[in-house]
Structure formats: C-alpha cells, structure tokens
Amino acid sequence: MAKRGRRPKLTIQRAKQAIEQAGGIRTVAAEKLGVHRTTLFLFMKRHPALQAFADDVEEVLKDIAEARVIQAIRAGDMPTVRWYMELKGKDRGYVRRVEQTGAGGGPVEHTQKMDLSVLTDEELEILLRAAERREAKANLKAA
Q1: What is the CB neighbour count within 10 angstroms for residue 14?
Q2: Global confidence as pTM
Q3: Are 62 and 25 in contact (CB under 8 A)?
Q4: 3-state SS of 41-95?
Q5: Which residues contact 53 (CB under 8 A, 6 or more apart)?
Q6: HSE-up of 111 (CA within 13 Å, CB side)?
Q7: Residues 6+ apart with CB under 8 A from 40
Q8: Which DSSP symbol is given to 123?
Q9: Could you read off the pLDDT of 42-71 as tens digits, one per residue?
Q10: Is residue 39 within 8 Å of 30, Cβ to Cβ?
C-alpha cells in the first residue's frame, strides 16, 4: 500500500507568505497553502498577529488602489473623476440621483396584492361577488 504524502505543517511564516502572495484574500491563501479555508480561518483566529498581518496587507492594497485613483484624476480621466465625486463629493452636491415617474411624468402608481390564502371562505365569496358585479358593470359600459 502506497504511503500518502503528508501536507507541510501550517506555520505562521508560511501563512504570512501565502496571504501576502494572495493580496490578503484568505481563500486564495488557503489554496496556496493546500488547506481548506476554514482551516486557515481557525489558524488565524488562534494567532491574532497573523490576522493583523492579513489586515495590513489589505490596507496596503487599498493605499495602492487609492493612489491609482488619484493618478487617474490628475490625468483627467473623466469617468474616474465622476465616480470619485459621486462617492466623496456628496457634500458638494455631486450625487447621482435617479428619479422615477409614472405615466406622463406623474407619480408612480403602486398596487398591493392581497394574500388570499389568509381569507376565510366567506370572505373569498364576498370578493368573488364584488368582482362579478364590477365585471358586469364594465360589460354594460362596453355595450
């Protein structure tokens, strides 16, 4: 019977290296380590310094991304400028607002559907008679 290979032991150093290579994405780091993501999450829970390291890796990536946004704005990239102002310039009136209107620019009409399953047989019978009367009136007007 062939001997199964044993996975290398999960260490803080190996975990740090995988987390850094994965850009702080824990699931990707777990794949790199050859362990299930739950195993890595539990290992990180037992080692708060490793959790702090992973958080720092994410913060560095956010800083890099933010620097790229600033570069794009300074280069005059208008979609990025617009996106930035919609997020950060709300206090200056840069808000994307979508207004919805009904027919002819009027208010949107809402109809609420009744849950008929909660009604008794008597209540359903009353509704049925009312619907039949309404239909009969409509037919008289159409004739």
Answers
A1: 16
A2: 0.55
A3: no
A4: HHHHHHCHHHHHHHHHHHHHHHHHHHHHHHHHHHCCCHHHHHHHHHHHCHHHCCC
A5: 16, 19
A6: 3
A7: 10, 15, 26, 29, 30, 33
A8: H
A9: 999 999 999 999 999 999 999 999 999 999
A10: yes
Tracing tokens 């047989």 back to the chain, one arrives at: 121
DSSP code for 7: P
H or E stretch at 31: helix 26-33
Q: Which amino acid is at 64?
A: I
101-129 pLDDT, tens digit per residue, is 888 888 888 888 888 889 999 999 999 99
Q: Of 65, 48, 60, nearest to 23 (Cα)?
A: 60
Angle at the Cα of 89 from the Cα atoms of 88 and 90, rounded to 5 degrees:
100
Structure tokens that stand for 111 in this block = 């109809």
- Rounded distance between C-alpha atoms, residue 129 and residue 141, angstroms: 19
Which residue, 100, 103, 96, 130, is CA-closest to 114? 130
